[in-house]
Design a protein that fits this description.
139 residues, disordered N terminus, elongated, mainly alpha
Length: 139
C-alpha cells in the first residue's frame, strides 16, 4: 500500500501533519495563539527594557532587531510544534486554560497598540511620561 501524504483518507493519528495544514487558516488555531503569545512576550519584554533603558519601543526594536527576530522565531516554532502535532488545544492545567491564554493575548495586543500610540503622541518613552505624572502628583 502506498501512502499519499496529500490524501485525506488517513486519520490524524496516523498522519497528523496532513490535517494540520489548515492550522494557519484565518479561523485556524495558530494565528491567534501565536500572535497572542508574541504579544504577551513583547509586552513584558518592552516593559522591562523600557524600565531599564528609558528608550521607546521603536528605539528598542531599531537597536535590537536581530535579537528580537531570533526570539520571535523561537517562540513561533515552539508555538507551532504542539499545534502541528495535533495536541489537544482545549486541555488545561489549573489556571492555564486556552481561554485565559487567548484573553491575555488579546489584551497584550491591545496594550502594545495603546502603548505605541501613547509614545507616538507624547513624543517620548512611556516610562518618562508616567514618571513625570507621578512626580508632578507628589509636588
Amino acid at each position: 500500500m502506498t501512502l499519499c501524504l496529500l490524501s485525506r483518507q488517513f486519520s490524524p493519528s496516523i498522519i497528523p501533519f496532513v490535517y494540520r495544514a489548515d492550522a494557519l487558516a484565518f479561523d485556524g488555531p495558530a494565528p491567534e495563539i501565536v500572535n497572542g503569545r508574541l504579544a504577551m512576550l513583547g509586552f513584558v519584554s518592552a516593559i522591562g527594557a523600557e524600565a531599564a533603558s528609558h528608550t521607546s519601543i521603536m528605539t528598542q526594536v531599531d537597536n535590537h532587531a536581530i535579537l528580537i527576530g531570533l526570539a520571535t522565531s523561537v517562540f513561533i516554532a515552539a508555538s507551532f510544534v504542539p499545534i502541528l502535532n495535533g495536541s489537544d488545544l482545549e486541555a488545561s492545567s489549573g489556571i492555564w486554560t486556552r481561554a485565559a491564554e487567548l484573553k491575555n493575548g488579546r489584551w497584550a495586543m491591545v496594550g502594545i497598540v495603546a502603548w505605541l500610540l501613547l509614545e507616538w503622541h507624547g513624543g517620548m518613552p512611556l516610562s518618562n511620561v508616567t514618571w513625570d505624572i507621578l512626580v508632578s502628583a507628589h509636588q
